[in-house]
Each structure stands twice: as structure tokens, then as C-alpha cells.
Amino acid sequence: MSGREVLDSQPVSLVDLLDRVLATGVVVSGDLVLSIADVDLVYVSLRALLASVRAAAGPDPTSGGTPC
After folding, report:
1. Closest to 54 measured CA to CA, from 29, 22, 26
2. What total number of domains does the chain contain?
3. Which of 20, 30, 39, 54 has a CA-to-CA distance to 64 between 20 and 30 Å?
4. Which domain of life is it from (predicted)?
5. Phi and psi (nearest 5°) for 65?
């Protein structure tokens, strides 16, 4: 049984999923275009990084490479 099959067969709660996402981090991006009469007036590119402080800080050099 592959790892993918194991993940598909076990339910994951929202709290566990959020914990996994924040532990590793995720980037959310999107584009917004405001236009009138098919004329693009404003273009906004949005990017957000969602991560815990521990994951965003990276490894702590004093602890042998493990995160904070």
C-alpha cells in the first residue's frame, strides 16, 4: 500500500490539516483585475505566506539545525 492510499483512507480533521500547513508553510496567490467596458484599469497581484513563526524563522543554528 502506497503512502497516497494510506492518506486517502484515513480522515483528517481540520485542526490536523491546519497544523500541518502552518508547520511547513504555504503560499497563496491570486490576481485581481478591475475593468470597465473591457478596458483593464487596475491590476493587482496578491501573494501571502501562511506559516507559523517557528516555520518562518527557519532552523536555529544554536540547536543543531532543528527549528526554534
Report:
1. 22
2. 1
3. 20
4. Bacteria
5. 95, -5
Residue 36 CB: number of other CB atoms within 10 A? 7
C-alpha cell recorded at residue 64 = 543543531
Q: Using one digit for the tens of pLDDT, what is the confidence trace for 10-61?
A: 777 888 888 888 888 888 899 999 999 989 899 999 998 888 777 767 776 6
Is pLDDT of 8 > 70?
no
Whether the predicted model's global pTM rises above the 0.70 cut: no
Residue-range definition of the domain harbouring residue 43: 3-55
Per-residue exposure over 44-57, b if at least 16 CB sit within 10 Å of its own CB, e if not: eeeeeeeeeeebee
Measure the CA–CA gap between 32 and 5, rounded to whole angstroms.
37
